[in-house]
Inverse folding.
């Protein structure tokens, strides 16, 4: 560990929070990783084009200069190779962070993650403290292979944790928790949020974390609960504002932040208060996270419901590229409004 | 220009005719000019998403594909391009208007607005578009060519991948499978020195990509990728071997990516001098034209006429593509399965009936 006295000064682009200046979602993640790498020498990062180039989205900008080639490793295009290598390093007590250039390519490493990494602790081969992170999500005309939300594929894999934040504050606090966690964490970064000016915020200047496994009440309300995460939090906010104005509906929005493990308590409490549940996610519908949430509500809060739980999701198709198709594919604020009105009027 | 006496024209190499040489020139020109028009459209924000250029690599794209049997009735050879093989696609008969419609995400594009750029397929003309996950088409093309073998068809497959994509597991497994099965497959490794920002030294510790051929037990050749006729020669030999039952080949073409990974990439990791050197001394079109002239295989007038025809063809294509309609939103539900549309979430239709 480096002591404060010998720590080299940070370059300007990672000193915004220190100076009380607002940061974007992307900058928050960069600061979080940077601070953890300063704090703990066992943390290192590997992935494609992350060194001098600073990554496809520039999350790792400046890290090579500061932390050197042994801790900021440009890899060959070998997702299964560098994910496996990260697992090996984690066995040896390192805390690797794997960057997928686009999260869509995580599927190349599916075997390594689900068969090897996720089962390691259970097999008594040792827990694997490692983070696999990368840009996810649609709305940027990226087509079928640069827009995916692959959380459901891993949601079904015991042994993994899955984090998918929606605000700069949570992104920074959660990436730090993910790095410090003793189990493998998949950390999805919705690329539509990366540089959105609306998401810029001033973060605490001192070290802070946000706990994994805890949801956050994004908006308090009493008439209806919307459970959602990632970019959809902002779409739901838009819908809630409109519903308040036009219908006088008081919508509560629960931002899950962590998908695995689910914060069942937070969902239950909210639903028991509002008696109506809408689950919204950008991922496709069949086999999506919403089904699990609705099942748990069915098991544990059936008596409290005044209306059947509903979900708003993408359609069951690959992510299409052309704007009219992608706009139809993705859940829109309008869909949320329509569903909320249906529930309220039930 | 004063004319001076010259020796009789050298004989044209390989099995090419003078018409072939002009045809190759036409494809080179089409590739370069089409990309210039795409770049213009990109600047006007008429391209949806990214634009990927092959400037400086057109020679190897065109010359490799030109070695294939390019019938358009579904019985010829099959090719799978990489993002920078616009030239190969045009040689196989993909049309500029198809490519333009793809890049503009039009409803009547070959993928109906569902996929990007040159990621599209046509079995009749013999191409299967790649997908973004790199290397995936190597095993797929191993399977395509396995089928040729199973059916006793004398057809050949050609698949392209970059220096970077050779690092994928899919490449390794695919070429190994093809090698063991002696599939009639030609694997073209385009060594353009970079994978996005990553130089080849961080991609492989082998001195040459062609060295990998020995490890897989396949025929290997390395060729100057900006020497159009040399590339054609290497591709011709590999295609002939494949067709006569001698199995899989790996060809490493040495070239250079003069543009960034995509139009948004300012390519700070490539030195200006390096790019300028390739441009001024090692441009595949310049070199090809010089060869044509030096051997008196073509005249200035002929090439100028071709360039003008190409320009007209492409202007028409741009106009057509610009006028094409965008897809209808509901089409997002089509073609997930053969038998029916997938169901739209109820919010796009009638509310569900919980008692229904
Ligand atoms: C499996 C996978 N990982 C990462 C990427 C992201 N990516 C797209 S192109 C590229 C570089 C490709 O380099 P190369 O194979 O040399 O082809 P070139 O672009 O030079 O033609 C990368 C890393 C991808 N498409 N697929
Ligand atoms: Mg390359």
């Amino acid at each position: 560990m480096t002591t404060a006295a010998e720590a080299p000064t940070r370059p300007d682009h990672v000193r915004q929070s220190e100076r009380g200046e607002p940061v974007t979602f992307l900058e928050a993640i960069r600061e979080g990783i940077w601070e953890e790498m300063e704090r703990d020498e066992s943390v290192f990062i590997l992935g494609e084009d992350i060194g001098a180039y600073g990554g496809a989205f520039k999350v790792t900008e400046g890290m090579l200069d500061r932390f050197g080639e042994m801790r900021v490793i440009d890899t060959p295009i070998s997702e299964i190779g560098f994910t496996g290598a990260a697992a090996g390093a984690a066995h040896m007590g390192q805390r690797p962070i794997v960057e997928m250039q686009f999260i869509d390519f995580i599927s190349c490493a599916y075997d390594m993650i689900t068969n090897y990494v996720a089962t390691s602790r259970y097999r008594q081969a040792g827990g694997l403290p490692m983070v696999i992170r990368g840009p996810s999500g649609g709305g940027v005309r990226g087509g079928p292979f640069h827009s995916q939300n692959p959380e459901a594929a891993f949601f079904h894999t015991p042994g993994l944790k899955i984090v998918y934040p929606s605000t700069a504050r949570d992104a920074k606090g959660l990436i730090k928790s993910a790095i410090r966690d003793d189990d493998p964490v998949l950390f999805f970064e919705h690329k539509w949020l990366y540089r959105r000016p609306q998401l810029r915020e001033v973060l605490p200047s001192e070290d802070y974390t946000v706990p994994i496994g805890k949801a956050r009440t994004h908006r308090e309300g009493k008439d209806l609960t919307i459970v959602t995460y990632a970019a959809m939090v902002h779409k739901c906010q838009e819908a809630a504002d409109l519903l308040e104005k036009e219908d006088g509906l008081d919508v509560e929005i629960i931002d899950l932040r962590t998908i695995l493990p689910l914060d069942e308590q937070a969902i239950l409490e909210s639903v028991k208060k509002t008696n109506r549940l809408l689950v919204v996610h950008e991922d496709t519908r069949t086999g999506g996270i919403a089904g699990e949430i609705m099942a748990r509500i069915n098991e544990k809060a059936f008596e409290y419901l005044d209306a059947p739980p509903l979900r708003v999701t993408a359609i069951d198709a690959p992510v299409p590229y052309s704007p009219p198709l992608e706009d139809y594919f993705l859940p829109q604020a309008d869909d949320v409004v329509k569903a909320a009105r249906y529930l309220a009027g039930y | 220009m004063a004319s001076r006496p010259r020796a009789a024209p050298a004989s044209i190499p390989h099995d090419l005719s003078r018409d072939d040489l002009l045809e190759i020139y036409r494809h080179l020109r089409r590739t370069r000019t089409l990309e210039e028009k795409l770049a213009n459209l990109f600047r006007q924000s008429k391209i949806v998403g990214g634009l990927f250029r092959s400037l400086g690599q057109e020679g190897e794209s065109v010359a490799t594909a030109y070695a294939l049997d390019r019938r358009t009735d579904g019985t010829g050879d099959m090719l799978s391009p990489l993002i920078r093989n616009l030239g190969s696609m045009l040689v196989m008969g993909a049309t500029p208007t198809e490519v333009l419609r793809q890049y503009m995400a039009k409803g009547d594009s070959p993928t109906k607005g569902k996929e990007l750029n040159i990621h599209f397929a046509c079995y009749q003309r013999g191409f299967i578009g790649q997908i973004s996950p790199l290397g995936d088409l190597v095993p797929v093309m191993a399977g395509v060519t396995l089928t040729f073998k199973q059916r006793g068809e004398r057809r050949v497959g050609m698949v392209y991948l970059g220096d970077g994509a050779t690092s994928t597991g899919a490449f390794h497994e695919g070429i190994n499978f093809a090698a063991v099965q002696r599939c009639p497959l030609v694997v073209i490794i385009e060594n353009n020195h970079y994978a996005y920002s990553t130089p080849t030294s961080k991609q492989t510790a082998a001195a040459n990509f062609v060295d990998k051929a020995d490890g897989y037990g396949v025929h290997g050749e390395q060729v100057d990728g900006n020497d159009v006729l040399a590339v054609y020669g290497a591709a011709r030999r590999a295609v002939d071997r494949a067709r006569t039952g001698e199995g899989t080949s790996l060809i490493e073409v040495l070239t250079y990516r003069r543009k960034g990974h995509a139009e948004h990439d300012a390519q700070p990791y490539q030195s200006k001098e390096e790019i300028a050197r390739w441009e001024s001394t090692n441009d595949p079109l310049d070199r090809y034209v010089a060869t044509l002239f030096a051997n008196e295989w073509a005249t200035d007038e002929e090439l100028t006429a071709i360039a003008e025809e190409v320009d007209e063809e492409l202007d028409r294509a741009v106009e057509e593509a610009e006028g094409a309609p965008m897809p209808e939103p509901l089409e997002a539900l089509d073609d997930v399965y053969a038998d029916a549309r997938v169901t739209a979430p109820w919010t796009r239709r009638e509310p569900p009936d919980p008692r229904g």
Remarks:
- Residues A 48, 77, 79, 101, 105, 108; B 82, 84, 132-134, 162-165, 168, 190, 192, 194-196, 257, 261 surround thiamine diphosphate (ligand 1) (CB under 6 Å).
